[in-house]
Amino acid sequence: MRIVVDAMGSDNYPIPDVAGGVLAAREFGDQIILVGQQDMLERELAKHDIKGLSVDIVHAPEAISMQDKPSAVLNSKLQSSIHIGLDLVKTKQADAFVSMGNTGAIHAIATLKTLRRIPGVKRPVLTAIYAITGHNMIFLDIGANADAKAEWLEQFALMGHLYALTALGIHSPRIATLSNGEEEGKGNQLTKEAQERLRENTYGLRYVGHIEPKEILLDKCDVVVMDGFVGNIFLKTFEGSVTYITDFLRAEINQSLTYKLGALLLRGAFRKLRTRLDTREVGGAPLLGVNGVVIIGHGSADSYSVRSAIRLARQAVIGNTIETMTAKFAASRLVADTTS
Amino acid sequence: MRIVVDAMGSDNYPIPDVAGGVLAAREFGDQIILVGQQDMLERELAKHDIKGLSVDIVHAPEAISMQDKPSAVLNSKLQSSIHIGLDLVKTKQADAFVSMGNTGAIHAIATLKTLRRIPGVKRPVLTAIYAITGHNMIFLDIGANADAKAEWLEQFALMGHLYALTALGIHSPRIATLSNGEEEGKGNQLTKEAQERLRENTYGLRYVGHIEPKEILLDKCDVVVMDGFVGNIFLKTFEGSVTYITDFLRAEINQSLTYKLGALLLRGAFRKLRTRLDTREVGGAPLLGVNGVVIIGHGSADSYSVRSAIRLARQAVIGNTIETMTAKFAASRLVADTTS
Question: Could you tell me the pTM of the whole model?
Answer without folding.
Answer: 0.91
